[in-house]
Amino acid sequence: QVQLMESGGGLVQTGGSLRLTCAASGSIGSINIMGWYRQAPGKQREFVAVMHSSGTTHYADSVKGRFTISRDNTKSTVYLQMNSLRPEDTAVYYCNYVKINSYWGQGTLVTVSS
């Protein structure tokens, strides 16, 4: 089993920045994928960014150039630096860990005011 603990959400104005953190614990493997997804009110959960333990990253087109995913493998932690935030970025952000099985965090709310 893997447990994920997210933090860093909050309220920010348009153009502002936030940094999300997700710490994984439990049966952590050295090779895995960690990432972020989000779900806005009334919409389906969507992909934001992922990072393989090797360092390979992938981003949704909507966040490219504004969001940066990084990780500290020694701490089993993944980060999402979000800059130039827009009202449409408002959502609950979920951390995801994949190694054979997929695990989800509880989510952290990000609200961007216009």
Helix share of residues? Answer: under 10%
- Judged by helices, strands and strand pairing, the structural class is mainly beta
Radius of gyration equals: 13 Å
Ranges with pLDDT <50 over ≥5 residues? Answer: none
Beta-strand percentage? Answer: over 45%
In sequence order, what are the helices and strands, one letter per element? EEEEEEEEEEE
Overall morphology:
globular
Tell me the number of strands. Answer: 11
Number of helices: 0
Tell me, rounded to a whole number, the average pLDDT: 96
Mind describing the biggest β-sheet?
A: 7 strands, mixed
| Ends distance | 40 Å
Q: What would your notes on this structure say?
A:
- With 114 residues, this protein is mainly β.
- Helix content is 0%, strand content 59%.
- It contains no helices and 11 strands.
- The chain has strands at residues 2-7, 10-13, 18-26, 33-39, 46-52, 57-59, 67-72, 77-82, 91-99, 101-104, 108-113.
- The strands form 2 sheets. Strands 2, 4, 5, 6, 9, 10 and 11 form a 7-stranded mixed β-sheet that branches. Strands 1-3-8-7 form a 4-stranded antiparallel β-sheet, with no helix packed on it.
- It is globular.
- The chain starts with a strand and ends with a strand.
